[in-house]
């Protein structure tokens, strides 16, 4: 099975350094792209390959790149490529892995991406706690610069590209791409009004593309092997491989690069080794904290964008969080709302005021102070806060996804708390 | 603040590191977050005095800079201990028992989340998902990621951080 993202890591048994990367044809594709191809050709291949964003929303990457204006007069100013390496979605740990084991793969992807949109400046927007990633990326950038792969006239062409790492100072909202741009500009990370979208007006008001780490890491292999090869990697409607992950009470939590469209059950049973003895699986958040719960009836579905959406959830980041039978769904919902309430940027009222209010109500129910009517109250407020358009960005929508689905699938647990005035699992 | 005061408040090294960041950016104020992190790395936290000096270096108002500093959770506007312990309380770690780990850490150190031990050795903070959910429950001490953390290893782990 082809594993374009991780085969070098597996072969090296750890960090892929510059020598190992180049021995495995690393940077050969970037060199060919910059010296022999046109930006338009690259965009077409990525479009044809049907590479979709791995940051959560699944937007087609080639289409996004096509939104960058091409007809600007010379000297109009910078264009930017920004790699979103903020990775703060709870349950998600895939981008860290790629950066800490194969940093040159990301740099090569960024060189090709930058050339394809004719960006002369690129940034990795890195979450502040990723100290090891910061060191490794900076080393790798210095090595690439020394070889003439970054800087002025890269690979002997007339194309210049400067790449720098921006360390974030924390806050989940920095991952939202317009908030990210404010943070990159040194400001408070509040989301911006859309439109204008970043490809038209992004960092410092200039055309900007924001792409996830895993998205960009896919680009070199697509160019090297062709769009058709990439499409054929997927088992179903989506192309390529995906870094899937499992956390929770399984025997072997971790990450695996598998064909896009591998079923949930195969990922949990075969790769994560199934549940630990004495624990039963009740539900999963398929792609991070801001995705809806799925339950047993969904486990034979393939993990691909359209299918998971049709099942009422989102593939999100593809790293799933498992809820076993020792966990109280009410208390887990409280934990999730605590995260979203704390991480609200505070700009708009339903999110800033509503999420802490939901967290408090969930705490009351969990601790046996729930009243008849509280579930209806939760539902009404969840639908008001969660409806896209009622808040300024999708943070609040994401916050409501796990809650609304918990109310749907684990309703009896919520009702028992209110009826009995206590958590049935208290003391566990 | 005069030029001399600025030099006295921020070290030559700090100013140089901040200027390197500014060189990557279209204007000085864009380096606000980098500058705060750099000064914090040298001093452990960002005092009012440091904040004023950074604002001056970046040609922006201290009030604007403080509104940025207080927005981000990794910028400390109060002194912290010699070592900062961050215990992940997000959902994968929750499933694997972080609530218990948080209580154990509070008991062990004799402080609540958000507080510093009286000997200034440790500051204990909650943190959101550290991106190491396969190792849950996870914590990070200074720059070191530790996980999965078992309750009976705490003394040994903490002992490595004087
Ligand atoms: C609240 C919020 C947080 C987000 N956090 C991240 C993140 O940490 N990493 C990421 O790549 N995308 C994140 N996104 C998605 C980005 O806004 C954006 O869609 C993505 O970076 C685009 O890259 P892609 O097309 O390559 O997926 C977040 C979105 C929202 C609404
Ligand atoms: S929805 Fe929440 S995070 Fe988004 S702008 Fe409003 S307050 Fe900020
Ligand atoms: S939830 Fe704790 S490291 Fe991800």
Element layout with pairings:
The complex is a heterodimer of chains A (428) and B (162).
Chain A: H1 7-12, H2 18-23, H3 28-36, H4 39-49, H5 61-66, E1 80-85, H6 94-101, H7 103-117, E2 121-126, H8 131-146, E3 162-167, H9 177-184, E4 208-212, H10 213-225, H11 227-233, E5 241-247, E6 254-259, H12 264-271, E7 281-285, H13 305-310, E8 319-324, H14 329-343, H15 349-366, H16 374-386, H17 395-409, H18 411-420
Parallel strand pairs in A: 1-2, 1-4, 2-3, 5-8
Antiparallel strand pairs in A: 5-6, 7-8
Chain B: H1 3-9, H2 12-23, H3 32-43, H4 48-57, H5 62-69, E1 83-88, H6 91-95, H7 98-109, E2 122-127, E3 139-141, E4 144-146, H8 154-159
Residues 88, 90-93, 129-130, 132-133, 136, 138 of chain B line the site of FE2/S2 (inorganic) cluster (FES).
How would you portray this structure in words?
The complex is a heterodimer of chains A (428) and B (162). Chain A is an alpha/beta fold and 428 residues long. Chain A has helices spanning 7-12, 18-23, 28-36, 39-49, 61-66, 94-101, 103-117, 131-146, 177-184, 213-225, 227-233, 264-271, 305-310, 329-343, 349-366, 374-386, 395-409, 411-420, and strands at residues 80-85, 121-126, 162-167, 208-212, 241-247, 254-259, 281-285, 319-324. Chain A has 18 helices and eight strands. The model of chain A has no long low-confidence stretch (mean pLDDT 96). In chain A, strands 3-2-1-4 form a four-stranded parallel beta sheet, sandwiched between helices. Chain A is globular. Chain A folds into three domains: 7-233, 3-Layer(aba) Sandwich (Rossmann fold); 241-324, Ubiquitin-like (UB roll) (Roll), CATH 3.10.20; 329-420, de novo design (two linked rop proteins) (Up-down Bundle), CATH 1.20.1440. The relative contact order of chain A is 0.12. With 162 residues, chain B is of the alpha+beta class. Chain B folds into two domains: 3-71, Arc Repressor Mutant, subunit A (Orthogonal Bundle), CATH 1.10.10; 83-159, Glutaredoxin (3-Layer(aba) Sandwich), CATH 3.40.30.10. Chain B is 44% helix and 11% strand. Chain B is built from eight helices and four strands, in the order αααααβααβββα. Chain B has helices at 3-9, 12-23, 32-43, 48-57, 62-69, 91-95, 98-109, 154-159, and strands spanning 83-88, 122-127, 139-141, 144-146. Chain B is elongated. Chain B starts with a helix and ends with a helix. The mean pLDDT of chain B is 94. Chains A and B meet through strand 3, strand 5, strand 8 and helix 14 of A and helix 3 and helix 6 of B. Bound molecules: flavin mononucleotide, iron/sulfur cluster and FE2/S2 (inorganic) cluster. Flavin mononucleotide (FMN) is lined by residues 53-57, 59, 84, 86-89, 173, 175-177, 210-212, 215, 393-395, 398 of chain A.
């Amino acid at each position: 099975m082809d594993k374009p993202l991780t085969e070098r890591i597996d072969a090296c048994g750890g960090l892929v350094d510059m020598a190992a990367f180049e021995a495995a044809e690393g940077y050969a594709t970037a060199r060919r792209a910059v010296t022999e191809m046109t930006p338009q050709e690259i965009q077409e291949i990525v479009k044809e390959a049907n590479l979709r964003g791995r940051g959560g929303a699944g937007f087609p990457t080639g289409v996004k790149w096509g939104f960058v204006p091409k007809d600007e007069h010379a000297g109009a100013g910078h264009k930017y490529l920004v790699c979103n390496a903020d990775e703060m979605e709870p349950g998600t740990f895939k981008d860290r892995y790629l950066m800490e084991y194969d940093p040159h793969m990301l740099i090569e992807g960024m060189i090709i991406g930058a050339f394809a949109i004719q960006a002369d400046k690129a940034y990795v927007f890195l979450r502040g706690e990723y100290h090891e990633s910061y060191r490794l990326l900076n080393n790798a950038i210095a090595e690439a610069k020394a070889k003439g792969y970054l800087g002025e006239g890269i690979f002997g062409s007339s194309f210049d590209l400067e790449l720098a790492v921006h360390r974030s100072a924390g806050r989940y909202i920095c991952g939202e791409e317009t908030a990210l741009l404010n943070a990159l500009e040194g400001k408070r990370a509040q989301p911006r009004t859309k439109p204008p979208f970043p490809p038209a007006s992004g960092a410092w008001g200039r055309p900007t593309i924001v792409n996830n780490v895993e998205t960009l890491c896919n680009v070199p292999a697509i160019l090297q092997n062709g769009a058709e090869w990439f499409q054929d990697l997927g088992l179903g409607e989506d192309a390529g491989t995906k870094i899937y992950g499992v956390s929770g009470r399984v025997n072997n939590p971790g990450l695996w690069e598998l064909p896009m469209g591998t079923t949930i059950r195969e990922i949990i049973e075969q790769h994560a080794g199934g549940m630990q003895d004495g624990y039963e699986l009740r539900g999963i958040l398929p792609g991070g904290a801001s995705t809806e719960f799925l339950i047993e009836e969904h486990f034979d579905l393939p993990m691909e964008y359209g299918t998971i959406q049709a099942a009422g959830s989102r593939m999100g980041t593809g790293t799933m969080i498992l809820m076993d039978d020792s966990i109280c769904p009410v208390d887990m919902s409280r934990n999730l709302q605590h995260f979203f309430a704390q991480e609200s940027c505070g700009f708009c009222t339903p999110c800033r005021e509503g999420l802490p209010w939901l967290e408090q109500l969930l705490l009351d129910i969990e601790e046996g102070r729930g009243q008849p009517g509280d579930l209806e109250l939760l539902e009404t407020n969840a639908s008001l806060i969660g409806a896209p358009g009622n808040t300024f960005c999708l943070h609040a929508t994401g916050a409501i996804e796990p809650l609304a689905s918990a109310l749907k699938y684990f309703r009896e647990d919520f009702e028992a708390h209110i009826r009995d005035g206590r958590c049935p699992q208290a003391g566990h | 603040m005069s030029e001399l005061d600025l030099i006295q408040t921020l070290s030559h090294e700090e100013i140089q590191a901040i200027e390197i960041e500014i060189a990557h950016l279209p204007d000085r104020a864009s380096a606000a977050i980098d500058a705060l992190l750099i000064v914090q790395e040298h001093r452990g936290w960002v005092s009012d005095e440091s904040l004023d000096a950074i604002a001056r270096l970046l040609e922006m108002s201290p009030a604007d800079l403080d509104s940025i500093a207080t927005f981000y959770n990794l910028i400390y506007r109060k002194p912290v201990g010699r070592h900062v312990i961050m215990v992940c309380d997000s959902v994968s770690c929750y499933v694997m028992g972080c609530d218990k780990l948080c209580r154990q850490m509070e008991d062990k150190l004799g402080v609540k989340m958000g507080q510093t031990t009286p000997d200034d050795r440790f500051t204990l903070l909650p943190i959101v998902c550290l991106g190491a959910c396969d190792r849950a429950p996870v914590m990070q001490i200074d720059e070191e990621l530790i996980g999965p953390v078992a309750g009976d290893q705490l003394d040994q782990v903490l002992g490595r951080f004087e």
